[in-house]
Amino acid sequence: MLVILFTLCFFALGSSAGAPSNSSGCLCTYGHPCWPTPDQFAELESQVSQPLIHPVPTASACYPANDPSGNCTQVMQRWTDGNWRSSIPGSMDEPNFESFIFKNGTISACYLNTSLGVPCEQGSVPVIGVDARTPQDIQAAVNFALRYNLKLVVKNTGHDYLGRSTGRGAFVVWTHKMKNVTYDAEFAPEGAPANETHQAMTVGSGVQWHEAYDVANQNGRMMVGAQDPDGSIGAGGGWLQGGGHSSLSPSYGLGVDNVVQLTVVTSTGAHLTINNYQYPDLFWALRGGGGGTYGIVTSVTYRTYQQLPVVLYFMQANVTNATAMKELIGGMLRLQPNLTDDGWSGYGFFVNTSATFIGMNPGMSTAAANASTQPLTDYWLSLESKGISLEVEISPFDTWYAWHTWFQQFFNTGGESGTNMMGTSRLLSRDILANQYADVAEILYDCQGEVNMVAGGKVAQISPDSAGLNPAWRNAIVETTCGVFWAEGATAEEISGQIDQLKVWIKDMYVLSPQSGAYFNEASLFETDWQYTFFGSHYGKLKEIKDKYDPYRLFVVAEGVGSEEWNEELTCRW
Length: 574
What we know:
Elements: H1 38-45, H2 72-78, H3 82-86, E1 100-101, E2 107-108, E3 128-131, H4 135-147, E4 152-155, E5 171-174, E6 181-187, E7 198-204, H5 209-218, E8 221-222, H6 238-241, H7 249-252, E9 259-265, E10 271-274, H8 280-286, E11 296-303, E12 305-306, E13 310-319, H9 322-341, E14 345-351, E15 354-362, H10 366-382, E16 388-397, H11 400-410, E17 420-429, H12 430-435, H13 437-447, E18 450-453, H14 458-461, E19 476-486, H15 492-512, H16 530-535, H17 539-549
Helix pairs in contact: 9-10, 9-13, 13-15
């Protein structure tokens, strides 16, 4: 993705104990006279539980002048390992977000390929921050950022297609080590009626989904969570705040539909416990209103479900010509609504001459699965005469957790971690799939995109106004995604060319579905009418809640609620 500098400008709201002392009007970044002194940072360090961190780019160990104690061999071996990257304060899942492109086209970056002859530079990686282990650490960091008017970013794993968890010259709150996980079979939300309890799991904001799934499985439970190949996505941060889709969503709803309580630190330094009974407006907003916007989440409590056996529907095809591939994609889209109605979720991938579809249904027998998927199987088989060779199978698994383990092993070559990329998504309704599946197939063939069958079913049965989530999710059956990629060391002009292609796909999908939207966590900085695309009719209410709970405008991210009040670089408010 093209990295844009996201600096923030502070709007003074009168004097208070927590208000910044700097009156220059813009947030302070490293290298400016306003930047705190070593003694002032030492004062902060005395208030937190861990030494301050000084993040560096992922590849810095390969440049001894930058990191004399580094291990470049490890960097090369684990470059595409999402869990390893997430354990490094300065590492982003997509390394292009570690770099910074100046307006004159020069790039500040730290490349793995040292033979490019480019010096390792800090790029957009924050220069100093707090290794938060407790809510009190976060409160100290927030108060310090306000006192010295610092540009603040929040980072857990670095899975972020909008660059929200990095920033050139910034001060960072790193929540990755907040790893507490507890299961409570009789969890009672604060302020709830005495008879309301849940079999729930509470995860700290640094917990990743592979860690949450392991604990849930040990207790005979399963959770609605992210379905990525290595489980490295965070369970307590941006995934949830953007909506949170899952392989279990058609059966149990989205992530935002399964949260019973949150704890969060706001820009006033308050540590709040929020749910449907306490601060319900903020609870509503944090469930789908976008991460990095209202405060710093410190924990999330999710409903859990009894582990169930599941059945896998698997198709893999080799396709010899474009016409056949488009027919394959279009037919799959056309048949999705019926599968969703039967409780299926799934993922379709189209790369070059290969197509893969992975479907999953919890609680369905193998016989019922055969009957339910017969129309799709018949359709696949009808394409064999057009140059497609197929493998189709149905397999039972004892538990969802066992199926999830298989899913991870299937993608054991790794995902997109360590790859320079930018993506876009679109939520498509039943009507679009019925009447415009061929048009969608043309775009997905062109972009070698994906289809995520993670909506419909339970997602559609929940009121659109139950959470701050974009209401377009309640009408959707599938989410489609497209992406562009570029090699390390690409010029600013080459990157811009890739983004121009991405903009074409964004426009084409928007024209097909102007009343729909995109998934905030899997989109780009160039979506059409981003307020509506990401938040729909909820935007106005989300903005009111943002202004209420973040009076200092400390939390501002690219295309997040309220960011339209800032200039293009997010350096100063209009």
